[in-house]
């Protein structure tokens, strides 16, 4: 099985995490494409530019970051394969997250809205900056062969706790983002509100099942 | 030291958690008493009734729940004292949380607003219901002498992971609540927005430092 990834059949929580993640992606697409204006980073309609932001921040950033966490702990593979998959999926998450952030700054620019005034934007930009730092710190500590084994062992609990905190911070950013958009649109009832509420729940349950599946894998 | 609580000097993260918790309580009070209408559960002004809700949901529910988590893992005391303190602080958190929930239902009733339509309310009521279930489950499993040792050992990882998920769910509920209120008030700049953003950050940092201090205590 060297270098070959396959799923440990017992990790039902991982299956649940994927289920919630995929439900969230589907609900997000229904919301943005059916109820909202669709997505296009080069549109004349600023709202179509904006819509790229929630899609990439969940599918690109949060979903792939969750996959990266689960790839390390719940997929049976050679240790090096797990590490490289973990590092690489986080790198893709960072890249797509940057495009998602670009979308909202471009929207603000077009619609003449100030940047970074809301609680959502503070939590979001704080999470993303610390996430990049965590990636750099992890790369230097765990991927460069020269680092000392003792230093690695001491860094592990901080890397795990920090990563988990960042996962939940990203979930908080997503929930406040949905809350801001929905309150701004003054949706109070109807199918769109229900859809966004279920989307928020699916994102929250994705975060929880990723965390718990990774945590319980450590107890085995 | 039997039955006598004192602080382990090394747990600097616990000190940080208290610092963030107290900062959040102070910012919350400045916000509700200075910028908003004040608090009174029996007022004629529905907004004064409402303001009891954010105060009790943070100070009563989240802050005391965090204290309960830290009391078990980071305070040196006889095991039974730790357990009873943990159980009792969570019980007080539930009690004050119920009063906090009563406040917002009473406000909706007075101001003729529908209950439980927003994402914030869904996350909040879901978190609170699961929190009560977790308390009952914990009480039956860990406090009743008849339960089997083997059953307890199997329940521990789930109790820990579930408790942590509930802590972050409560933080998400708080952040979405602040986001809803601020977007509803159409605050976009000025001192009140800044105050609420710093309040949101303090609540988030309280949650993270509680989680990480409890998690790192387990690695020792």
TrEMBL record, chains A, B:
SMART domains: B561. It is found in: Membrane. The chain crosses the membrane at residues 12-32, 52-72, 84-105, 125-144, 165-182, 194-217. CDD domains: Cyt_b561_ACYB-1_like (cd08766). Signal peptide: none annotated. The keyword Iron applies. One of its GO terms (cellular component) is membrane. Residues 16-215 form the Cytochrome b561 domain. InterPro entries: CYB561/CYBRD1-like, Cyt_b561/ferric_Rdtase_TM. It comes from the Eukaryota. PROSITE patterns: CYTOCHROME_B561. Keywords: Electron transport, Heme, Iron, Membrane, Metal-binding, Transmembrane, Transmembrane helix, Transport. The keyword Cell division does not apply. Its cofactor is heme b. Its main location: membrane. GO terms for molecular function: metal ion binding; oxidoreductase activity. Gene3D superfamilies: 1.20.120.1770. It holds the Pfam family Cytochrom_B561. It is a multi-pass membrane protein. This is Probable transmembrane ascorbate ferrireductase 3. It comes from Coffea arabica. The gene is LOC113718817.
């Amino acid at each position: 099985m060297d270098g070959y990834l396959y799923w440990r059949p017992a990790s039902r929580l991982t299956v649940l995490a994927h289920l919630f993640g995929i439900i969230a992606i589907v609900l997000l697409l229904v919301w943005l494409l059916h109820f909202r204006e669709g997505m296009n980073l080069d549109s004349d309609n600023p709202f179509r530019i904006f819509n790229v932001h929630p899609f990439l921040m969940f599918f690109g950033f949060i979903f792939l970051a969750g996959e990266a966490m689960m790839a390390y702990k719940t997929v049976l593979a050679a240790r090096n394969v797990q590490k490289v998959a973990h590092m690489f999926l986080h790198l893709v998450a960072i890249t797509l997250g940057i495009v998602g952030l670009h979308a909202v700054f471009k929207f603000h620019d077009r619609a003449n809205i100030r940047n970074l005034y809301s609680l959502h934007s503070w939590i979001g930009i704080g999470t993303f900056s610390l996430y990049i730092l965590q990636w750099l710190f992890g790369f230097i500590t765990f991927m460069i062969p020269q680092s000392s084994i003792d230093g690695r062992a001491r860094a592990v609990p901080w890397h795990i706790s920090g990563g988990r905190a960042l996962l939940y911070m990203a979930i908080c950013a997503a929930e406040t983002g949905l809350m801001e958009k929905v309150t701004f649109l003054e949706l109070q009832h109807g199918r769109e509100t229900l859809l966004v509420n279920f989307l928020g729940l699916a994102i929250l349950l994705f975060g929880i099942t990723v965390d718990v599946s990774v945590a319980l894998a450590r107890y085995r």
